[in-house]
Amino acid sequence: MSNVLSIIQDPVLTYEQKVISLARAAEDSIEVLNIPAAVQSLRDRDILCDLFEGHAPYRPRYVVVNFEKFMKQGSKFLEIDPPQDLEEAVHALLILYKHIPSISTFPVYIGSLDTLLEPFVEDEEGAFKTIKLFLKHIDRTITDSFCHANLGPEPTRAGTLILRAERELQDAIPNITLKVSPASTEDFLRDAAATSLITAKPSFANHAMFSKEFEDFADGYAIVSCYNGLPIGGGSYTLSRLKLDKLSYEAVNSADYIERLLPEAIQLAMDYMDERIRFLVEESHFFESSFLVREGLIDPARFTAMLGEVGLAEAVNHLMKLDGRSGRFGHSQEADDLGVRIIEGMQAVVNGHFNPHLATGGHYLLHAQVGIDSDAGTSPGCRIPIGDEPPIHEHLLQAARYHKYFPSGIGDIFSFDETVKSNPQVVVDIVKGAFDAGMRYFSSYASDADVIRITGYLVKRSEIEKLRRGEAVLQDTVALGKGAVDNQHVLERRVRMRDGLL
Amino acid sequence: MSEQVQNLSLMGYVRRILPFSSVDGPGNRTIIFLQGCSFRCGYCHNPETIALGSVLSTDEVSLRSPEDVVQEVLKYRLFISGVTISGGECTLQPEFLLDLVKALKKENFNVLIDTNGDFDQAFYERIRPWVDGFMLDVKSVNPEAHKELTGEDNQRVLENLNRMVQDRTLCEVRTVIVPEWLDNTHTVSYVSKVLAAHAPETRYKLIRFRPHGVVAQFKGKTMPNHTEMEKLEKIALDAGLKQVILV
Ligand code: SF4
């Protein structure tokens, strides 16, 4: 239990961060999962990783509450009546947020805030003040930037007020995604693009693509955590990831990788997640005891789970060498084709596996994981390594090839020169083109912004500096951001459209 | 320099195609830089684009057909609001330029012409139906200063300014501000007055002179300071312009 003492004595963690760490330490002091030796070996070789989900799953990783239903019915358990005006609406939401479990203990989805609040917007200036305070409250109390709000696709007064407030606040939390469809007007998109350049949010989601994939779910999908698409009123039990690059170091060549190593590893990863789900659903009693289930705000029949991957770029580059080829991921058709074959191989194995608890046809969803702070030399998901990015017009088309395989999330991030701030239509044009080309998700910020997107979540550069000086910071994700800055060089992302360089 | 490339109605000297730009008109645009300029501005940042004819090295400039250029631009179509044709001075290859804008229009591109304004009314009338607008440089309203800066007279530039304003084909005017040399106040007041009379919503960009990459005579000149730029901005705003941008 020396870990417990070191948490207690940690000079930088806040009280809240200590409590959460201690809960983790308690969970990790027991062993309840049946983990076969082959799975454990894959974990020990740093190929399979459960992203610190803990030894005894007692809540789903991501819970995607049906807030629309909550606004209509209130909550018996929380003794909240359906709200009648804007003040009641934001209070009801803030109360509910404190009771939504997740892997981080903070809600990863806080609703489609524009459509939830729109019915209550009367006097716009009054509403603006309330909305701005509401967002500030979220930033200061949900101290984890995997917390995600959604907007759109239609423009609303509430949506416009939220964007305006975010431009003024420039806070890291909440993360925000605008669902983009033909119903999103140019003005609304421009407003969102301008906001993203100032404060790294919102990101843009291809609504047509996500809607189609989640069409079997009555309430559609939400974008949660970093950029994960999941059914509203459900969520994801768990997420484990495979380090494709680490695995490639065990291959003889690309054929050996795709035909032997990869299917084996994926199967073991799914066996591991099956076991986590079994414990959560059948032994932890979460779904029997949660008021969210009792009141219909979540439904076990809408839960699925995700298989993540990282390091495709490095895996491809290594396998190309093993095959005696010279092409590089992101710069050669042959390398990119190999990348597609690997992902298609993953998809085939995933779709060949059935787990009755998974609401998405009994199958896991593929997820291009954004990496963790300690990853060094492993690029997130299917991204081209930082420092090796091609010009943006080539980059977008390259990335788009991979996006269709990842319904539960993939995305690319582009840092633009400050001059683009005076012409935000540029970002709108690029986003629309990217979506027409098959991209699922797009994030942007201007190179001089304080709030920046690390890999999927947002952190303020100024907070990272504080932490570097040994000062405590409110949000736990700042530490992750600092790690990513040090290990993944996220501040060195190629700046687009500066002095004619794309 | 009034040399024009004749007999090449189907081919033109193209310096470079920049797939995306955020500073050459509304939205994201592909920029086609044509080779050759009729002026020789002391502060030109692309002096390599000025020459036209046999002096050109084929490494840097290629002789291309409009169709060939359009094929390249089509690769970027998904991501752009339109195309801006720039230079040098693109109207120095008038027949090629006309063929090029027609070929772009056939593909429904929004097309802007970025020009120093040194062409006559007849050409203006010919190209006007094929383009969505012009972006015009007005370097100085004083004829002597203009001649000293560019080597050429400014009469056609000012005629085009007035013509475009009246026709509402002007999408942006730019003036480079060189302190203590050009009569910046005079130029900015004149342009602002002309714009305000017919098209006050036209964007007017005031660009700070930057001494790097320019000819020796201009290396010693200083950049305008903040106060000077704000003073000029105020002149333009007071005249009634809606969009004045300092760069
Ligand atoms: S008009 Fe433009 S391209 Fe021509 S010399 Fe002057 S600055 Fe250079």
3D architecture notes:
- The complex is a heterodimer of chains A (502) and B (247).
- With 502 residues, chain A is α/β, with parallel strands linked by helices.
- Chain A has a domain at 62-230.
- Chain A has 20 helices and 16 strands.
- Chain A is globular and about 65 Å long.
- Chain B is an alpha/beta fold and 247 residues long.
- Helix content of chain B is 33%, strand content 21%.
- Chain A binds chain B through residues 391-393, 396, 416-417, 419-420, 422-423, 425-426, 428-430, 432-434, 436-437, 496-497, 500, 502, and chain B through 18-23, 26-28, 75-81, 245.
- Bound molecules: iron/sulfur cluster (SF4).
- Iron/sulfur cluster binds next to loops of chain B.
The tally of helices of chain A reads 20
Largest sheet of chain B: 9 strands, mixed
- Uncertain ranges of chain A: none
N- to C-terminal distance of chain A: 52 Å
Distance between the termini of chain B: 29 Å
Structural class of chain A: alpha/beta
Helix fraction bin of chain B: 25-40%
Q: What is the name of the CATH topology of the largest domain in chain B?
A: TIM Barrel
- Greatest chain-chain contact: A-B, 24 and 17 residues
Q: Which strand order does the major sheet of chain A show? A: 3-4-5-6-13-12-16
Strand elements of chain A, count: 16
Q: Concise description?
A:
The complex is a heterodimer of chains A (502) and B (247). With 502 residues, chain A is of the alpha/beta class.
Helix/strand layout:
The complex is a heterodimer of chains A (502) and B (247).
Chain A: H1 2-9, H2 15-27, H3 37-44, E1 48-49, E2 62-64, H4 67-73, H5 86-97, E3 109-112, H6 113-117, H7 124-141, E4 148-151, H8 157-169, E5 175-180, H9 186-199, E6 203-206, H10 207-213, E7 221-224, E8 228-231, E9 234-243, H11 244-248, H12 254-283, H13 286-289, H14 291-294, E10 303-310, H15 312-322, H16 333-351, E11 365-368, H17 392-403, E12 412-416, H18 425-436, E13 441-446, E14 451-453, E15 458-460, H19 461-468, H20 477-488, E16 495-496
Parallel strand pairs in A: 3-4, 4-5, 5-6, 9-10, 10-11, 12-13, 12-16
Antiparallel strand pairs in A: 1-9, 2-9, 6-13, 7-8, 14-15
Helix pairs in contact in A: 1-2, 5-7, 7-8, 8-9, 12-16, 15-16, 19-20
Chain B: E1 12-21, E2 29-34, E3 62-64, H1 66-74, E4 82-86, H2 94-106, E5 111-115, H3 121-127, E6 133-137, H4 143-150, H5 155-167, E7 170-177, H6 184-198, E8 203-208, H7 216-219, H8 226-238, E9 243-246
Parallel strand pairs in B: 2-4, 4-5, 5-6, 6-7, 7-8, 8-9
Antiparallel strand pairs in B: 1-2, 1-3
Bound molecules: iron/sulfur cluster.
